[in-house]
Write a structure and sequence with these properties.
It contains 4 helices and 2 strands; from the N terminus they run ααββαα. It is mainly α and about 120 residues long. The radius of gyration is 23 Å and the shape is elongated.
């Protein structure tokens, strides 16, 4: 019976279940942001392939000329570069936060031996 509940107890070798519960939303958030922003930027980049056959409407702006599709292509490319930097920054932030969270239960001597 003690082995079943040992996952809830803080130990030196394994983080508690709270660390895993906290780290799940970070993974979900980074996945949702990455897929959403990449979808938007790829949609902007590929809009010039279909502007003549499909009405690409951005609520206040309808893409119906080649010049407008080229402007949208450039905006999508700039957005893609920004999104890649944003995702990289989020990954570095989440890495530091999760390392802090998982290493917080260790004593000072054990933290020095951890592999980064």
């Amino acid at each position: 019976m003690g082995k079943m509940f040992s996952v809830f107890i803080k130990s030196k070798t394994q983080p508690n279940i709270f660390c895993h519960i906290i780290s799940y939303p970070f993974g979900l958030l980074s996945f949702v942001l990455t897929i959403t922003f990449l979808g938007i930027s790829i949609g902007f980049i590929t809009a010039h392939f279909s502007y003549q056959t499909w009405n690409f409407d951005l609520y206040i702006w309808q893409i119906d000329t080649l010049f407008e599709s080229i402007v949208l292509f450039i905006a999508g490319f700039i957005l893609l570069i920004f999104i890649l930097f944003l995702c990289n920054w989020l990954a570095a932030f989440f890495k530091k936060f999760i390392q802090l969270l998982f290493n917080s239960h260790l004593n000072k001597q054990d933290r020095n031996i951890q592999i980064m």
